[in-house]
UniProtKB/TrEMBL annotation:
<feature type="domain" description="Calcineurin-like phosphoesterase">
    <location>
        <begin position="59"/>
        <end position="184"/>
    </location>
</feature>
<dbReference type="InterPro" id="IPR029052">
    <property type="entry name" value="Metallo-depent_PP-like"/>
</dbReference>
<dbReference type="InterPro" id="IPR004843">
    <property type="entry name" value="Calcineurin-like_PHP"/>
</dbReference>
<dbReference type="GO" id="GO:0016787">
    <property type="term" value="F:hydrolase activity"/>
</dbReference>
<protein>
    <recommendedName>
        <fullName>Calcineurin-like phosphoesterase domain-containing protein</fullName>
    </recommendedName>
</protein>
<dbReference type="InterPro" id="IPR052963">
    <property type="entry name" value="Pantetheine_PDE"/>
</dbReference>
<dbReference type="Pfam" id="PF00149">
    <property type="entry name" value="Metallophos"/>
</dbReference>
Length: 382
């Protein structure tokens, strides 16, 4: 992993690329802690060893997010996944949850989901922010709501699920969501010039919204959350009939699922990643106290994550951008998709997850304004 020379003012896809800057060259500057003795479970590459179990009826649920298949390398990964097994009859009990940011263009979205349906009997999808960008296809859609509806229609045509469903006693509940700035309630970093949200977040220009909706305020977060009301009957059916329930969204339901601002190359990132309405929604499904049978999968920040908060397990397993996989500490893409459920129980811990492992051993200190060394070197104090 090579060091990068990126200016803090440079904007990128949905949020500043600065927080994705390589950390390997500054590894000795990262917070240190004693890691638990965890080995990565064998996942999809070893799927052929599990053919007999799968054929005999064993349900497995895999998760992945942030496929970004507008990148040829990522599309190639999806194609290799789709054709990794020549006899799909052995895979009839496999389920894949795709937690948004599949592709920016409709054609790449459609191809990606078609390929995934070749590999998995059940594919579920929730939209991410990149999925509703209109910058390349602006003339084809009235706005991002129109594009979203066309993507959901495409899913219906492909047999991709976007509504809650119970499969062999496991409940799968997609949750629509969008972020709002007031989600961030932790102290801001002061004394440095941080690019504004409009400069750093391309959603403000790449998405087109009707007059009643805006990236500013809570209108979008409320609009997407209200879409879940249409599935109340299906959700209640899942709650009545399923022992294990997995909800999933693109955006974050809690700020504890992101590193503290002083650790981020773009300290304003928490303002464009999550929704309080989402957390309230999933808590209403899993119950306030959660349970050992409750799991929520999220996406968007491209940080691998596996943590339990207030009785609910929260997991992120992103493919992310090719340049991130080349530099990241989690070993690239060979372990994806992550198998979250098999043999009638949730799988062991996803590992390694640098930041969630760090916060499992260290408390958050949101009032601490001291920039991490790898961040401080990119900002001049005002």
């Amino acid at each position: 992993m090579a060091a990068m020379s990126i200016s803090p003012s440079r904007s990128i896809s949905c949020f500043s690329s600065l927080h994705h800057k390589t950390l390997s060259s500054h590894y000795t500057l990262l917070p240190t802690f004693k890691r638990p003795n965890i080995t990565r479970p064998q996942l999809l590459p070893s799927v052929s060893r599990d053919i007999d179990a799968s054929a005999s009826g064993g349900l497995r649920v895999f998760v992945v997010s942030d496929l970004h298949t507008d990148y040829p390398e990522n599309m190639a990964w999806v194609k290799s996944l789709a054709f990794s097994q020549t006899n799909n009859t052995h895979m009839r009990k496999d389920v894949l949850l795709v937690a948004g940011d599949v592709a920016e263009t409709y054609d790449n979205f459609n191809l990606t989901m078609s390929l995934l349906k070749q590999r998995f009997e059940h594919v579920f999808f929730v939209p991410g922010n990149h999925d509703v960008w209109c910058r390349r296809e602006g003339q084809q859609y009235v706005d991002s709501v129109d594009k979203l509806n066309k993507l959901l229609d495409a899913c219906k045509g492909l047999g991709v699920e976007t509504k809650p469903l119970a499969i062999d006693g496991v409940g799968i509940i997609p949750l629509f969501s969008w972020y709002h700035e007031s989600f961030d309630r932790e102290d801001d970093i002061t004394g440095i010039r941080v690019p504004s949200l409009k400069m750093a977040c391309k959603d403000f220009g790449a998405c087109k919204w009707p007059d009643s909706l805006s990236n500013e305020g809570t209108s979008l977060a409320l609009y997407f959350d209200a879409m879940n009301d249409e599935n109340e009957d299906e959700i209640e059916a899942v709650q009545r009939t399923c022992d294990h329930i997995i909800t999933f969204s693109h955006f974050l339901p809690r700020h504890e699922l992101c590193p503290e601002k002083r650790m981020l190359f773009y300290p304003h990132l928490p303002k464009i990643i999550g929704s309080d309405y989402l957390e309230a929604r999933l808590r209403s499904i899993h119950e306030t106290s959660g349970s050992a049978h409750a799991c929520h999968v999220f996406a968007h920040t491209h940080f691998c994550w596996d943590a339990t908060l207030d009785g609910i397990r929260y997991v992120q397993a992103p493919l992310a951008y090719p340049r991130e996989r080349k530099r990241r500490m989690n070993g690239g893409e060979a372990w994806l998709p992550f198998c979250i459920y098999s043999d009638d129980k949730f799988a062991g811990k996803l590992s390694p997850c640098y930041w969630s492992d760090y916060y499992a051993a260290n408390p958050r200190k949101p009032h601490n304004n001291e920039l991490a060394p790898w961040v401080a070197k990119f900002y001049n104090r005002v």
